Amino acid sequence: MEGEFYRDDSMQKEVYHERVSVLLEALPYIQKFRGLSIVIKLGGSAMAEDSLRKEFAKNIVLLQYVGIKPIIVHGGGPQINSMLEQLSIPTEFIEGYRVTNEDSMGIVEMVLAGKINKDLTALINLAGGKAVGISGRDGNIAFADPYILERSSKDGKKEAVPLGRVGRIRPEHIDPSLLHNLENCGYVPVIAPIAFSLTDQKGPLNINADTMAAAVATSMKAEKLILLTDTPGIIVDNVTEKFIDPPRAGLLKREKKVIGGMLPKLDCCIDAVCAGTNTAHIIDGRSAHSLLLEIFTDQGIGTMIARTKPPSS
Questions:
Q1: Are 162 and 43 spatial neighbours (Cβ–Cβ below 8 Å)?
Q2: Short-list 73, 147, 143, 135, CA closest to 110
Q3: Alpha helices in 34-116 (DSSP H)
Q4: 44 — pLDDT class (breaks 50, 70, 90)
Q5: All domains in the chain, ordered by first residue
């Protein structure tokens, strides 16, 4: 019995030492990022699964408690699809973009700003944080141009394809005043990707959440932009790229090593870092606490995008 108690005590000490080591590893990053803004785009499984959303909310509360200023931009494609299907409103996608007419735009805004946004905000508040849910139309935060998709027709000519109430946003069309005010009052802004139209200011536009997050990161002069996705990062030849700079990104695009849905994610990360965001990260949101592993550990996870490679990476 005494030997068993001794072994149990030794194992307990090892557990405690491991926990202390984790805290000590996190300390320099807490010191480095304290008081700085980090923009986080929540999407994919991390937003669709209840357990992952709850863990994400706890992660955000921890960031807030150690003095980091998280800003969240969320998507909601699967939930929008489900609601449109229930209402028998047809959904059309062109090259990954949802064609959004007047009828479906009302549903998009209802689901994003009225349901998902408030549920996520409530989770953070219930976990002990202070969050406020808004959309880009609150406080005149975001304006956008209607997005006209250019693609090659069957005869090889370029054609312009209107997508309805879909917008393309630029950092200069973000007014960060409300976001700064919320941060200064100790609140986490949770943003639904809806913007005013620059050509029709009475109507909303549906904005891709990745590009919205990148524009917010640029306008807020954020330290980091983090995209939570359903992949380990940018995968090239079955290997996750640990670091990509703008020249490397250009090469991967020319060689068509990055295609499909990852291409716009890489583009918006490159845009953000070239506009002043220190680093951008594409990480796997399907793993609980991936956000904390990226921010507070030496190795980090996923793919880092930056202008220059940090000495420690």
A1: no
A2: 135
A3: 45-48, 50-65, 77-86, 102-109
A4: confident
A5: 34-306 (3.40.1160.10)
Calculate helix-pair angle for 262-274, 209-219, nearest 10 degrees: 10
3-state secondary structure of 188: strand
Distance in angstroms between the alpha carbons of the first and the last residue of the chain: 48
DSSP H helices, the chain, are 2-33, 45-48, 50-65, 77-86, 102-109, 117-126, 177-184, 209-219, 246-254, 262-274, 290-296
Helix (H, G, I), strand (E, B) or coil at 130: coil
* DSSP 8-state secondary structure symbol assigned to residue 116: I
**Rounded Cα–Cα distance for residues 210 and 265 (Å):** 6
Contacts of 178 (CB under 8 A, 6+ apart): 134, 138, 139, 141, 189
Angle value at C-alpha 77, between 72 and 81, nearest 5 degrees: 150
- Residues 49-104 have pLDDT tens digits of 889 999 999 999 999 999 999 999 999 988 898 899 899 888 888 877 788 888 88
| pLDDT tens per residue, range 63-73 | 999 999 999 99
pLDDT of residue 16: 67
Q: pTM (2 decimals)?
A: 0.90
pLDDT at 196 over 90: yes
